[in-house]
Specification:
Length: 417
């Protein structure tokens, strides 16, 4: 029997299995976030601000009265709290409002940790003076960032008082009046991709990050060899955190820094990872969070009892041409892999065409045209020049091949006027 669900926000891959699973999806999204791919998977698309619970309720309540939803769910960080509020108002099961808030607000996430191994010194700060005082108390570098930030936006490393003043000026200019400051964790960053059902948390896979100088993720490989070396501890800390915040169902994405002391929690989210990571997990482990987002959450399929074993490796690198104006795209066809060029004027949201190359062991997608401006990648949303995605026998082989293709894409830029 067909079931009906409301999905708030997210990207098209989150609903791509709807028809196959006999699920009717009503999608709630901002009018400027529409992807043509949504049309093939959704019964209806309605528009509302996904951060506004009242606006979402107003568009969903009449539809729920006509033909009830079994769930109102999301894999959008921006929509997490509002979705939980609407589900509660409609009397539907799901993650609680308190759980959504605990993962949306990084200070609340830190406060939930009762594990000394995972604990990190932190403090909510509201001024440059408070930030200076915290950095002095830590006696070393600290990171300051919005309590509800995404896409690595407005993240600053503070090593001395003068840097604290600059960081606070930038936060203030971005409209931030409060932030979280925490000790700077030294080491590589990895993430644990998980899925929960009835309070049981299953690890799907581990992702290893490549960060640029602005601490923005510009590449990934799956599964992470670094994470696998800490498998037992990562599983323990992830489950402890998700239990502590009361997460009951759905995808989660929990980031750690592998320090000299072992894994230390960076942050967690009640959603799938961004940056194409769910597709990398599918390639490396043979399991797709996007399918489980509907099938397991709606009780159509059971969450497996054991984590999947890797069937290979995968990697993705975002293209990083020098900042400036694109003068020449080169001849990417010589790379010997499928190359997709996004036409100028086409609206691009998220990681475009990733679903179109799912069956390709390696592919290149180029999102810029001659005359386009290339920014320095300072936040996640700047990763809009294109990408390379690769599957191979293991993560190291995939990462090597991915870098080779990435470096062979010849996008030449000239300085902007």
């Amino acid at each position: 029997m067909t079931v009906r669900v409301a999905v708030v926000g997210g990207r098209a891959h989150a609903v791509m299995y709807a028809r196959e699973l006999d699920v009717d999806v009503v999608l709630v999204h901002g009018a400027d976030q529409h992807e043509p791919a949504f049309d093939a998977f959704c019964e209806r698309i309605v528009h509302a601000d996904i951060t506004d619970a009242d606006a979402i309720f107003d568009v969903l309540a009449p539809l729920h009265a006509q033909r009830p939803f079994v769930r109102v769910i999301t894999t959008s960080e921006d929509g997490a709290v509002a979705t939980a509020v609407v589900a509660e108002r409609l009397g539907l099961s799901g993650n609680s409002v308190e759980s959504a808030r605990a993962l949306k607000d990084k200070a609340l996430t830190r406060a939930a940790i009762r594990d000394d191994a995972a604990a990190v010194r932190y403090e909510a700060v509201h001024s440059a003076d408070e930030l200076v005082a915290f950095q002095a108390a830590v006696g070393g570098p600290v990171v300051v960032k919005p309590t509800d930030g995404t896409a690595s936006a407005n993240v600053h490393v503070v090593r001395e008082p003068a840097q604290a003043a600059v960081a606070w000026e930038r936060l203030d200019a971005a409209g931030r009046t409060a932030a979280i400051a925490e000790e700077f964790l030294e080491g590589p960053v990895i993430s644990v991709e998980s899925f929960s059902s009835e309070g049981r948390h299953l690890v799907l896979g581990y992702t290893e990050y490549i960060l640029n100088r602005n601490l923005v993720e510009v590449g990934f490989k799956v599964p992470s060899p670094l994470a696998l070396a800490h498998d037992e501890e990562l599983r323990r800390q992830t489950a402890a955190l998700l239990d502590a915040v009361g997460l009951l169902e759905g995808p989660s994405h929990t980031e750690f820094v592998i320090t000299e002391r072992g894994p230390r929690l960076l942050e967690s989210h009640s959603r799938m990872a961004g940056g194409g990571v769910p597709e990398l997990v599918r390639r490396a482990y043979g399991r797709h969070q996007s399918r489980w987002f509907l099938s397991v959450t709606l009780g159509l399929e059971k969450l497996p009892h054991e984590s999947p074993t890797p069937i290979g490796g995968s990697a993705l690198r975002f293209l990083e041409p020098a900042p400036g104006i694109v003068a020449d795209l080169g001849d990417a066809t010589v790379l010997g892999v499928p190359v997709t060029r996004i036409p100028r004027g086409e609206t691009v949201i998220g990681i475009p065409r990733l679903e179109d190359v799912m069956d390709q062991p390696a592919a290149v997608v180029i999102q810029v045209s001659e005359g386009d401006e290339v920014p320095e990648i300072q936040i996640g949303w700047d990763r809009r020049m294109g990408y390379v995605v690769v599957s191979d026998r293991d993560a190291e082989a995939a990462a090597r091949r991915c870098k080779e293709l990435h470096d062979a894409v010849r996008i030449r830029t000239v300085p902007a006027a």
